[in-house]
Each structure stands twice: as C-alpha cells, then as structure tokens.
Amino acid sequence: MIEIKLFGSIEISRAGKAITGFRSQKTLALLAYLISEGRPVTRDYLAGLVWPDSTQKQALGLLRRSLYNLNSKLPDLLDIDRRTIAFSPNVPARVDTQRFAELSTLPDIAAWEEAARLYSAPFLEGIYLDDSPTFEQWLITEQQRWRDLVDTLLDRLVQALIDRGEYGAALVYANRRVALAPWSEEAHRLTMRLLSYLGQYNEALVQYQTCQQVLNEELGVDPGAETTKLYTQIWAARTSPRHNLPPQPTPFIGRHEEIERLVEMLGQPNCRLLSIVGPGGIGKTRLALQVAKAHSERFLNGCTFVNLAAVNSPDNLIGTLSDTLHLSSAGKADLWTRTLTYLQPQERLLILDNFEQLLRPDDQTENPALSMLVDILHQAVDVKLLITTREPLRLRWEQVFDLQGLSYPNHGDISQFETYDAIQLFLSHLGRVQRRNAMPEPDWPGMAHICRLTDGVPLAIELAAGLTQTQGCESIATAIEQNISVLSTSMWDAPPRHRSLWATFDYSWQQLTSREQTVFRQLSVFQGGFDLEAAKQVVHASETSLSRLVDKSLLRLAPDGRYDVHELLRQFGAAKLSETATQQALTQEQHSRYYATLLEQQGVHLKGSPHQTKALAIIAQEIDNARTSWQWALDNEQLAILSQAVEGLGHFFEIRSRLQEGEWLFGQAADRLRQIAKQPDIDQALAHLLLGRILAWQGVYAHRLGQLDKSREVSEQSLAALEALGEAAKQQTMLARFSLGIVDGLYAGNLAESQRHFAVNKRIAEETNALWELSAALQLLGMVAIDQGSLIEARTYYTESLAISQEMNDQWGMGIALGNLSEATCRLEDFETAKELAQEAYNTNLAIDHQVGMLYALQCLGNANYGLEDYATARDCFREALELGLQVGVLPELLDVLPYFAELLITCDQAEQAIALLTTCVAHSASPDWVKSKANAMLDRIRASSSSQGLAPAQGQTRELSAIVAEILAAEVPRYELGAFG
Question: Is residue 640 predicted with pLDDT exceeding 90?
Fold first, then answer.
C-alpha cells in the first residue's frame, strides 16, 4: 500500500518506508495535480501548466522525463496513454486528501476527528513554481478550498461535540480553528465560548485580548461588536452562579428521547420560546429541570428557574422574576424596565414554571403576563424562555412540546417490562416505599395494569406505588378503575388523563387514616416546603405520620430533612382543608403565629450575633412561609403577630438588599394599617406603634432606592406617629430619624440637619443601651465629618462603630464600617491600607450576601487601586460595582460610583465619555449632594483644561441611567495610558 501525504510537504511511502529520489519539485507538483484533479489530463495541458516558459517540444520532453521518474518510483500509479495522463484508481494507494474527503462526508464524529487529524498543514506546503503562474493560481485556489473544507469540518465537529456536552474535546478543535485562522473573530468567539462552558472565564477573557492583539497587529482594527459583546457577557458571567436549579429528592427516570428532542429544539437559533405543555402531574417541571441541567453550560449567564406556583396574577410576575434574579428597583414600572435592561446583554435560559395560572380564559392578547414575555423576547435577544404550562400560550414566538405520559406496556406485552419508563418509575418508588422490608417479586402484570390506567402520568404512578405497603398491585388497579368510572360521570368534560390522576389521588386519600387525612390537608398551608419542627408546631404532626405520608408518595423528603408537597397535591389538600372552615382558620392562624415567632427570634440575631449568617439563611429558606404568615395576619388584623414579625423582615430585606420587595410589602401593610387604626375597637397605641415601625422601614428602603420624596414623607409620618406615643416609643423613633438625616441632610447638603438627627439618635442609643443603633449613628456621624472635610474625626467615628459591631458579631455593621474606614483612609492617601480595608469589607459583606455593602466595598477598592495607579484593576472594580448597583437598583449608591469612574476615564484620555456620566450625576433626581458637587467640580476642571477644546458641553437632557451603565458594562476594554488630564 502506497501512502501519499499532500497536506503539508509532500511525503510518499510504502510499508512505512519513505520513497525518495524524485526528479524535481515540479515532478511532485505534477503528481499532486493529477491526484487532485481525479480525471485524465492532456499531455499538452500538463506540459504548458508546469513548464510554461519552454517551447512545446521542450515542455513535452520534460514531461516525459518526469513521467518516467514517477513510473520508476511508483509503478502503475499513473494511467498513461499517447494523449492523456491520469492518476490510476486501480492501484492500492492511500492519499490523505482523498481520505479526508471520504471521512468528512460520513455522519460519524469519530470519522470527522480522523479527518481533522489528517490536515496537519496547508495543502502542498512548501511547493513553489515561480515560473508557472497558472499552476500557482491553481495551488492558491486549492489551498483555500481545502482551508474552507477544514474550517467547515472543524465547525461541524465542534458543534457535534458541544451537542454531546464534550466541551473539552470541542475546545481542542476550536483551538485548531484559531491556529489555522488567527484573524478569524468567529474562531476566537468559539474558543471564548467553550472556555466559558468549561468555567475557565479568565482564560476566555485572555482569548479576547489575544484576538484584540492579532487584529490590531495584522489588520489594524479592533474586534467587532459581536466579539466585544461576548467578552462583556463572559466578564459578567464569571462571578455569577451557573444556575439556581432546585435539588430533587428522587432520581430522574426515563424521558431520554424527550430530553434529546428538547435540547435539540433549544439549540436552534429560531427557538426562543419553548413551552412544555401537559396536564398537572405529567412531569413538566422535572423534565424542564433535567433539560436545563443538561443545557446550562450552553448559556453564558446560566439558567434561572422561576417558580410561579404562588403567583396568581400577572401583576406579581414582575416581582417574582426580579426577586429570583436578585433585582430591586424604585417601583413597579421602573422595576420592569430594569429587569429588561439587566437581561438585555445576557445569554440566559429562563425556566418559568407553572405559567398556566397567569393565562386568562378571554382574549390572550390583552394579558400583561404574555406581553412581558414578548418584551423579553424583543429586547433580550440572547435570552430563551422554557415554559411549563397546562395549556399553550398561543404566541407567535411559541414552539410547543406536547408532553405525554411515560411509556408503559400495552395489553399484549408480556415480556421486557423493565424496558418501559413507567415501570422503571414504579419500581423506583416501590423500592423506597418497601425499603424497610425485603422487596417481593415484582407483580409485572399488576404494575403494567396500573401504568395503563394512569396513562403513564408520573404523579399518579408515584401515588399508586405508595399504596403497595398494604395492597397488591391488582387490588390497587381495580380500585383506581372503579374511581375512574365514577369520575367519568361526574367529570365528563375533563380529559381522561385528568380523571385518572384525580381517581388515583382520591383512592390514595381514602386509604389514609383519619389522622393522616387531617395532617395532609393541614400541611397545605405551607408554601415552599417546611421542616419537622414547623410541622409539629403548626399541625401537630409527628415524624411518624410524616414518614407514612412520604411512604405513600404524598410528601417528598429532601436530603436536608426538609419536606415538600407537589403543587398539584398541595392544591388537592387545600381543597380538602377548605371543606372544614374552622380547621382551616385555626391552621392558618397557627401557621402565621409560628413564622412570626421565627422571624422575631431570628431577627434578634440579625442585629448582631454569632448566629447572624445562620439566621439569614433560615429566613431566606422560609421567606415564602413568612410572606404567607404576614399576609394572613394583615388580612385578619392580627396586630400582635405583625409586631412580632416586623423587625426580622425589616432587617432581612435590608441586609439581603431586597429593597423593592421590602418597600412594597411594608407600603402595602402601612396602607392597610391606616384603615385598621380607624376602627374604634382596635388597640390604638399598638396600631400606631406598629404603623410607625413599618413606615420607618419603608422610609429606609425608599431612600436606598432613590425615592427621596417618598422616603421623606413616610419617615416624617413614622416619626410623628411614634413621638405621639411618648417615652414608650423613643427607641423606635431612631430608624425614621436615620432616614430623615440622610434624605434632608446628607443627600441635600444640609450637614447641620444631618448632625442634629444623628446626634439625637446617638444620645437615645446610649440612654437605652441600643448598641446596633449606636453603631449606625456613629457611622452616619462619620459621613457628616467626611463631608465637612474632618477626615481624622470621621475615622474615629468609624473605628468606634467597627468596635461595637465586632463586639456584637454584627457582620452587616462591620462590612459598612470597614468600607467607610477604607474611604476615609483613601482620602488620607494611605492607599495600601485603604485597599486592605476595602477587601476586608467586601469579604465581610459577601459572607452575608449584603449586596449594597459589596457595591460600596468595590467602589472603595476601585478608589484605592486608582490611587495606586493600577487603572486596569480600578476599572474592573468600578464596573463590577456598577453592575451590582444596576442589579440591586440602589440609585444613590449607583450614582456615587459614576464620578470615580469618570475620573478614571479622564485619566485615560476619554473625557467625552466622562462628561456624559458627570452630566447625568448632576441632573439625576436621586443624586446625593456630594455626588452633584463632585461632578460639577470635575466638569469645571474639564472645561478649564486646554485639552478639552472641541468637547461637547454638559447640557441638555440626560439619558436613562440604566442605559448609560449598560453601555459602560458593554464597552470595549480600553488601553490604560495616562491621558492629558492625568
């Protein structure tokens, strides 16, 4: 077998031994040409092609000598007659180009990988026939043709490996693509994307810089918009969690074909809205989670699961979505704008679960929830929506995947039962139900009968398996069949699959003891799951009774010991509970009291305790139950319960930066309490005390969100209500006074007003030994001193505050104090110490997920690095702070970063961009006075500089703040050189 290699320099061998001694390079070129053409070529054409400068007679003579040389070395390799010459198809020879062409057409990844290995270098590398321009042109064309074929093959191979989730293998070939065409932005983007899939974000960012350098050096251009956008997405994704997919207590069974098809559909560019449609209990949620798990790496910003089970109106969709994305803002309309702005640059999969309750039976075009989906699809072009719903959305964007039950044996199937998904699921649950006893020999026909009756609906199969502790499969099947017959009459308009599920549940319900029925229906008051202690206190359930419900598949027990109920089963239970009005009211009250007590107990830790982090985690886990508890107490005018809960909720929303949620929840409560307080039989003192406390927290959230007028209004109302109660409410007045000192003092530039409010709070805190409030007062007095230019005094206040917070184990207070100390130290030009303090502040805030504190610490880190002339790091810190500010929606803090970023832009000779930021700072209604003053001073400095001539003046309308910040985050990485203003 002769081996001929045409990729790279020509190599010819037989049995592994090289064949040499060819007459000339033109002889080898002649052979390569004949192989490549694959057809007979006339002697005259070949002679003129290879020896164009010779006479025809001379050229034909040279051709004969070359043919003789080839025949002597490679007998019978050529078919030669008097007129034409061709490469013989009958001689056993293996040519790499021919093999490449064969392999690349096969539908097989292994074949494509072999083909890719064959292309080691450009076609006929090193062959030059300078005296033959026609041959040279042919060679250039062939080399490009092979290059294009290789590029196509590598693209196809990389995509196939990506589809299989083999990102490491795909990266090998993507790197080959870059090596072959280092100027190809498409190749660099592919490599960047794969590095991101593998979690190698820093390497992906370095790849962008490599692309930037190559393009600049080779072509004198910068990367295009698409490449820069990808860089920005990766930069943002590097610190974000890949997903928030909830862990599942049981293994996922079957659905391999469905998963493969859904992943394929999501991978199509034109698939933006994919709805998994099917009845309740069919397994839509589990399938969506499994698809997202298999697909999460494919989205640079990951996958986000949004549970809409408790969302019963389109108005609540915005809050739930933004809450899941950890966004906050200054009102409903603005919040939706910010949500869209946040999603706009992202490549993310949003899984919206249980969407059917947001659909209306009337005209769908008027449904606000559907309009919101369309907004996302229009404005966030790289976001895809995966919806689970019991009915289609009927939008033009929508692609529907109709989910059926699991596969099950038909009547005639009497073998290979275990190959069916429904049987596998039944066996899986049977193993858990009967885990305490030896597993009996499976009743295959009985299980198949149940699976047929339930139409393969997973929830119905799980319920049926839960009954096998006391009954055989055929007995269960007979009972379900009888129930279906009854329901077919009473629910004649319901689909058969719905009737089979109701029949299975109803039969499971009948098999419960009276006590188990009571426990199960009472458990329906819980939202978002519950633990054993909650079940004991609220519904007086024992661990044994819960275990029995788990065995019967009516409850799910997670590995962390937390219980949960399938939403459809919870609805069944709630329907049963509503049939006993007295028990329903009592259970809801017990639920409300339990979680109010939990908030009261954990709220104490939030003001400083070794258990502060644990308390935050507990409240976060129980927040759905806490909201339900709060709403029930508000609806039923239970002021004592609300009083228990208010401080825990207030501190939780503040520390976790869930500001919009807190402002809305407490604002709604304040409106209701104003009405309650008018009732003559209400405890007026308690009502006004509670109203004052709630308004105080609303004022805190409002000024954080930049709603300065609202903050002033509700804080004044709070202070008036509490001061009217006299000495008993003196300590409660401090929170409102903090807000007024900030809004009317610091933000307005009225330092005397700030000093007055904060000094009063300091005195009250010292008199009442309120350490948390004392620490806060010292912090704010330090801010006044900073604005007065008294840096040493400010540092003293901050140091005292830090000591109190450390004594209390208050990480929230410690994080803020460390950030403030960093700022004061930075202004004293001790940049190294300021950097250390800022890093400690960031780590402290990160430990409790205090995002506003993290934002401020990043700003301080940026300032310290700027002072150390590390402009690249400073820019990264400011960018991350702006991104966090945009996400959380704290306008004053966001605006506070902009002058520092503008200073960096000026230093890097980008004054025009700086002017746009500074103009916004001056004009924005949420800008604190110190931000406006700094921005105006910088604008004056720019105008006074000789280097600023030609720059547009800072005047006219400013653009939307969120749009400006989004542009900063999407901007290309500048080269950090000291500019004219440095």
Answer: yes
